[in-house]
Amino acid sequence: MTGYWWSERIGSGYTHGYEIELLFEQRTPFQNMVIFENAQWGKGLILDGIVQVTQGDEFIYHEMMVHVPVLGCENPIRSVLIIGGADGGILREVQRYRQIERIVQVELDRDVLVGCRKYLPEISGNWKDPRLELVIGDGAEYVKRAAEASERFDLIILDSTDPIGPAIVLFEPPFHRNLASCLSKTGVIVRQSGLPVTMPRVMPFIRRRFLDVLPEVKTYLAPMPTYGGEIAFVTASRKEAGDISEPRSDYAGRYYNPEIHRAAFCLPTWWQKLIEDFRDDGQVPIETKTYF
Ligand code: SAM
């Protein structure tokens, strides 16, 4: 492949680089979008200089973000709210479940949806699914209106960008209060919570915000080579959801299986310490700092 070297600044004084062929670039009203191809990882999406998804390892992220909460929940999931997720990978995994009757996806940026549909269709689920209602708009606004209308979802998946730019509202306390109101009694919320190795305050911060509104909060992990290490996911629920860390089916995907489900909740000692030592100053952790 002939292209040029692009690098993502993922920590302090540290980048990782890809030789990319540029397929598409656009400054949308919300962010800068790049769609590229790389010999190792296939096609991928970059928003505001941060890799969001690549064909090579997206299955790990999307399977772990969907099957862990769906199969860890004691009661069947029938309704799902997805916030973000323009690439459609979360939608694809959610659509595997026939029991799911309603899917609402709220994505802020129409241009990213269009770009992904054109250049990354291999990743995406079926946007024509009659169970799907696609809303173009701000997830925080949607959840506020849904809470006011007493709407409830069994699973809420926060597949948004990191706490920068348009995603910052999704880290504020009012958003979390509205999320808890929109969650059914037996339901669960799951959120991508960044890489502790390069953004050590994000996962403990998300846990804190969830614990302000819901009693059961758990962290699990998955390896994401194109993000630069292990990503954290945080779940939040009420007692009625049961123990999310326990798989209730023997479903196996390409990455996910029941053993992986259980093992993902075993956290390294330094992650446990990050959680214990976290001091909440109320500030959204937008900085990226390496831990060591
Ligand atoms: N897997 C990803 C990652 O690594 O962060 C996330 C993928 S997905 C492309 C993230 C999406 O979140 C983007 O398309 C972005 O437009 C959307 N987003 C950001 N802020 C949002 C908001 N306030 N409401 C709804 N969607 C939002």
Describe the structure.
- With about 290 residues, the protein is α/β, with parallel strands linked by helices.
- The chain folds into two domains: about 50 residues, Roll (Spermidine Synthase, Chain: A, domain 2), CATH 2.30.140.10; about 220 residues, Rossmann fold (3-Layer(aba) Sandwich).
- About 25% of the residues lie in helices and about 30% in strands.
- It has a seven-stranded mixed β-sheet with strand order 8-7-6-9-10-12-11, sandwiched between helices. The protein has a five-stranded antiparallel β-sheet with strand order 1-2-3-4-5.
- β9, α5 and β10 form a beta-alpha-beta unit.
- α4 crosses α5.
- The longest helix is centred in the first third of the chain and has 15 residues.
- It is globular and about 55 Å long.
- The two termini are about 35 Å apart.
- Bound molecules: S-adenosylmethionine (SAM).
- S-adenosylmethionine (SAM) binds next to β5, β6, β7 and α4.
Q: Could you name the CATH homologous superfamily of the largest domain?
A: Vaccinia Virus protein VP39
What are the distinct ligands in this entry? S-adenosylmethionine
- What is the CA-atom radius of gyration, in angstroms? 18 Å
Q: Can you tell me the CATH architecture of the largest domain?
A: 3-Layer(aba) Sandwich
What's the domain count?
Answer: 2
Strand content: 25-35%
* SSE run: EEEEEHEHEHEHEHEHEEHH
- What is the count of DSSP helices, taking H or I runs of 4+ residues? 8
Would you report the number of β strands? 12
Spatial shape: globular
| CATH level-3 fold name of the largest domain | Rossmann fold
Structural class: alpha/beta
Order of strands, main sheet, comes to 8-7-6-9-10-12-11
Unreliable spans are: none
* Mean pLDDT level: 94
CATH class of the largest domain: Alpha Beta
- The rounded distance between the terminal residues' Cα atoms is 35 Å
Largest sheet: 7 strands, mixed
